[in-house]
Amino acid sequence: MFLLDSRAIKPGDTFVAVKGEKVDGRDYIDQARANGAVDVIVGQEELWARAKAYRKTLGAKVVGITGSAGKTTTKEFLKTFLNCYGTEGNFNNHLGLPLTILNAPPDGKFLVVELGTNHPGEIAALCDIAEPDVGVICSIGTAHLEFFKTQAGIAEEKGELFARTKDFNAAPQTCNQLDILRKKSRVELVECAGECGLECPIPGEHNRSNMALAYEVARKLGASHEDCAERLKNFRLPGARWRKVQVGDVTFIDDSYNANPDSMKAAIDAFKGDVVVLGDMGELGEESARLHREVLDYAYAKGKQVITVGKQFARAAIERSGAKEVLIKGSHAMNLTSLTERNN
Question: CATH 3.40.1190.10 residue ranges in the chain?
Fold first, then answer.
């Protein structure tokens, strides 16, 4: 295995020592060797070079998946339908993707990789490593507007996947900015209708759409309907994705892995209960205040009782109430004074 965490190294593993925001992996090379590492990769440049070289030895069809929301769910459905190895969780960035490739079995028939981006140019860089045969874009939404400015800008970035594939691409018929994606695609673009005849194991129209998209791709790659139906029985989502947690008499549906305006609304639609806890959404730039108000209004319009966490939703709730005077009181650790700092 190729691993970033020296503590997880076992005899025969390779330690990847890169400098992060908080720690420098190079400081833990001795620990990794003491734990049994037989090789060490130092720095992102060497990691990418190793991954690119190994990718060229693989006979697997590589499917790249991206999207503003739903890419991990779509990826997990496709891994299930194809019964293959792929990205673990949302390990989809400049470190996660090369590690996924390096850890892929040498004799696999398929490899499903998730590609994430929050800055222009990142999808192209990841495609240079993965060399995808098939591209899947599950949605174009409003995530990371801070860096892409417009939805069309997001589509241009995500669409780089379609510009670099070799066999075919796939997207929902209902995908926003589909015209841009059509222009970016240099091979056949399969536009999926959103139905596949299988019962979705998780609630929500968005999840059914993601499953149908994965099913369409799997079928085009040779999986039978019967195989997909049988493998779906063992489907599980990783991490905090629609995970049920019982606390006393209350059942919490933990879908807190990440959030953007589109996934927020989709989760509210899928949830049949009365109370929702909404936490702030990041990287929305100048549109942040408007989009937080929009999601809050959406929740109330659906008849939900709302508990907000974070200053963006708190400000939206206060503005929505029309209150002229508001008491702020709480422990210092809660940093509630930030509610009055308009520029933060």
Answer: 43-234
The pTM (predicted TM-score) of the whole model is: 0.81
Q: For domain 1-42, give the CATH superfamily.
A: MurE/MurF, N-terminal domain (3.40.1390.10)
* In the predicted structure, residue 4 carries a pLDDT above the cut 70: yes
Give the percent of the chain with pLDDT over 90: 76
Tell me, letter by letter, the H, E, C secondary structure of the chain. Answer: CEECCHHHCCCCCEEEECECCCCEHHHHHHHHHHCCCCEEEECHHHHHHHHHHHHCCCCCEEEEEECCCCHHHHHHHHHHHHCCEECCCCCCCCCHHHHHHHCCCCCCCEEEEECCCCCCCHHHHHHHHHCCCEEEECCCCCCCHHHHCCHHHHHHHHCCCHHHCCCEEEEECCCCCHHHHHHHCCCEEEEECCCCCCCCCCCCHHHHHHHHHHHHHHHHCCCCHHHHHHHHHHCCCCCCCCEEEEECCEEEEECCCCCCHHHHHHHHHHCCCCEEEEECCCCCHHHHHHHHHHHHHHHHHCCCEEEEECHHHHHHHHHHHCCCCCCCCCCHHHCHHHHHCCCC
| Structure confidence by residue, pLDDT tens digits, 170-228 | 999 999 999 999 999 999 999 999 889 999 999 889 899 999 999 999 999 999 999 99
CATH number of 43-234: 3.40.1190.10
Looking at domain 243-340, its CATH superfamily turns out to be Mur ligase, C-terminal domain (3.90.190.20)
